[in-house]
Amino acid sequence: MTATSPRALIVSGGWPGHQPHQFAEVICGMLESAGLQVTVADTLEILDDADTLRDYALIVPNWTMGRLSGDQSRHLRAAVEAGTGLGGFHGGMGDAFREDTDYQFMVGGQFVAHPGGIRRYQVDLTATSHPITHGLSGFEIESEQYYMHVDPSNTVLATTTFGGEHVAWIEGTVIPAAWVRPYGKGRVFYSSVGHDPREFAHPTVAELHRRGLLWAARRLG
């Protein structure tokens, strides 16, 4: 790693049930192995400095729930709009800062529920020519199957189909499970998989997320 290595920021905290600090170690390992210089912050105060945020190639929100100040939200969105990548997964990015609609527009979706809690379900890849998914196959995973409100302008990479055993009226509903989207000059990647760090022992899950983060950082495709 050199002084010119691209920099990544992981902002970890929020609801402890999603094990943000354990996930930070997993994400840090992924990014450092790809040659990025990683900073891990355990406070949202790092988002107070608008100029510093623009120096990062990638920002990874790893903060379930919580609340951004107005300035923190504006600084984060401005950095991505100017070209910084945004990437993350599960509640750390898709159930973060519930009151911040502008943040949700940037992410491209927001968690609603996970009927049945932790359960085994199928993830189907739908955009197999994309650099993130090329050569990968669909997979089963034991996790929280996220039902989400999703922006229809996203480029969907993977979907999951709900049964009706827990909520009858969603039986057969297909919900995006991973997507990408532009936000100004920035790239955004999100996956709803990732409730527990042990899920990343699944080789396809690990590779999907590794590629997604690198794509957002413009280190892939």
TrEMBL record:
> SUPFAM superfamilies, from UniProt?
Class I glutamine amidotransferase-like
Output the superkingdom of the source species. Answer: Bacteria
Positions of the ThuA-like domain: 7-216
Pfam hit, one? ThuA
The identity of this protein, by name, is: ThuA-like domain-containing protein
